[in-house]
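Data deposition worksheet. Section B asks for the primary sequence of the deposited chain exactly as it was used as input, without tags or linkers unless they were present during the calculation. Section C holds the resulting structure in token form. Section D is free text for depositor observations; keep each observation to a single sentence. Incomplete worksheets are returned to the depositor.
Section A, Depositor: J.P.
Section B:
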Amino acid sequence: MLIQLLVVSVVFIFCIGCDIKEIAPESGIVAHVGEHAITAREFKLNYEFGFAHLKNSPDKKFSYLGYMINETLLSIEGYRLGLDKTERVQRLEQTLLEELLVEELFRIEVDEKIQVTPEKVKQAINKSKVRWKLRYWVVPDLDIEEYIYQSMQDQGYENVVQNIQTNNPEATYHLKNFETDYLTWLDVPPELLEVIENLQITEISKPIELNEVYYLFQVTDIQRGGISDYDYQNTYKRFEQIIFYRQQEEKTASYISDFITPKDIITKGNALRTLAIGLAAWKQKSNNKGTFSEALENAIETESALWKLKNQLEDTLITFDRGRLLIKDIVSLFDPAAITADPSAKDLFHNQFKQQIALTIRNHLLAKEAIAHGLHKSLAVENQLQSWRDKWVYEEMRRFYTKSITIDDFGIKDFFRNNKSRYRTRNGIEPVFTDFANQARQSAYFEQTHLLLEKKIQLLKKVHKVQIYKAVLDTVSVTNFEKSRWANLVLFKNSTGKMAIPIVDPAWGFGNIGQMHN
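Section C:
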């Protein structure tokens, strides 16, 4: 698309695991689970972005806190069993630590140096009252664009179009005419704004390149609105944020460029191709269930691409100023799941592959820079890492307890027969097992899971004392969607697309929700 809107995702940084010896319950703790404190802030963030089906009881906050307590008990037991040392948790922790270090580096080197003055905000509000309507032409070649631009300057737009259509009908596909709605400076990229803001009505711009495509723009209309004191007061905060995030985007790109360019990064072509071919072969395997690293470790000679890559893991893939990265280093650092293209779409796959490798190298070097500045000791980094570590250990503990649960065909049919009221059909027709076999299997599994976990949790409560401070919990203000109780508000990081904070596992509520047959 020509016009791209700036999408901003807010990343919250919060504190968990506060020292219970220093903070009294009335200071903002909603529960103690053994020596672990669940703070009001932690609860509020988790609840606000938690799944709606976990908030359908009469006392929503109290029941939601119960899920958080369950997960805390399971994570405490997981730590006791050493599940924080599993390969999965260690790998996730390594990846997240690098992401957090890069975020913290940008916060200090970019965000904290941005200044948004009242004068800049006022100018931005004034500019927003100017709206342009544009006509633009897309031409894939600069030489043609220059010719068309000069012709339109001399002869006028209509004459140029008519001449092209009359003298060379086959070339008319080069000349495409599009019109926009009214746009403000918020709707266009800065490089386009610089071109159009000084154009008069009917004036044609010189060729401008956007995303490797050349354009000519003509302003067909300009509207200018008035500004009142209400406009300044009502929109000040919004424009302050817009300016901040636009500056953040610009200054982050500049910082990365200034940081990376002197590194003299060189990629070894043969090694990169070997990695790409091996990754493509792994993604195309029909029985691909494990990780890419596991596939390489277990590769045999008949798997030619993976076998070749396995035997070249010690080869240098990247060299840079004062260092190098081997193929095995990149394999351990990058996320194959981020490459979503099918390997059969070779160009798209290789473009995504190269982009992911470039991001991996960039983030690795930036993370090393952050460590050199001691940012790995930052409370913001440590607290976020700890909160996610707790979450992953809970998941490992849940998996450890439930891995032996199996549901046979007899058990599924028995479950369905005893719970037919869950499976509603149109017009009140008696539900048939074959129509609901999959739902019954899932529901039976979750029911057995919940029964088993409930027993384990009750035993853990005898070891780790649970205290709930209801008076504090009642003071926590939360958002509830009255018109749509099933609405979800999920927070993702703009930088990675991953969830910004850990929230309660939605599986706690699956066993109690009826199924609707359509």
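Section D:
Residues 79 and 393 are 7 Å apart (CA to CA).
The longest strand covers residues 213-224.
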